[in-house]
Amino acid sequence: QVQLVESGGGLVQAGGSLRLACVASGRTFSSYRMGWFRQAPGKGREFVADISWVNGNTYYAESVKGRFTISRDNHENTFYLQMNNLKPEDTGVYYCVARPSTIPRLDSTFGYWGQGTQVTVSS
Fold first, then answer.
1. CB of 98 within 8 A of CB of 79?
2. Do the strands 92-100 and 117-122 form a parallel or antiparallel pair, or are they unpaired?
3. What is each CA distance from 13 to 17, 75, 89, in whole angstroms?
4. Side-chain half-sphere of 62: how many Cα atoms within 13 Å?
5. 112 has which bridge partners?
6. 70: buried, middle or exposed (CB in 10 Å: 19+, 13-18, 0-12)?
7. Buried b (16+ CB within 10 A) or exposed e, 95-108
8. 52 - beta bridge partners?
9. Least CB-packed of 24, 59, 75, 117 within 10 Å?
């Protein structure tokens, strides 16, 4: 049974930093991309970033480029989202996801999803 468990959310002032972690278990992820989506109140789920489990290639939404960094630790089956220079518009529930690399990057439905962690950025 595949499980993804997130941690690291919280409340931070604008300009601050947070680091999210997602521990994945239950299968091998060698052909998968591991990623992060977020959902602001009243809005749909939005792609943030993802990383290839096998070669570490990364991809970011324009809104977070230069501020967020996604990384992975294959030995610990964990991937991370380092968020710097946070803005109020980054507020939302952040979800980690694992899915085969053949799934379109912006697809917000298919895959194994974590339970979500709240990130709140105050102005």
1. no
2. antiparallel
3. 8, 33, 12
4. 0
5. 98
6. buried
7. bbbbbeeeeeeeee
8. 33
9. 75
Which residues, 6+ apart, have CB-to-CB distance to 10 below 8 Å? 18, 118, 119, 120
- HEC readout, the chain: CCEEEEECCEEEECCCCEEEEEEEECCCCCCEEEEEEEECCCCCEEEEEEEECCCCCEEECCCCCCCEEEEEEHHHCEEEEEECCCCHHHCEEEEEEEEECCCCCCCCCCCEECCCEEEEEEC
Report the alpha-carbon distance of residue 76 to residue 25 in Å, rounded: 10
Torsion of the alpha carbons at 86, 29, 54 and 63, rounded to the nearest 10 = -20
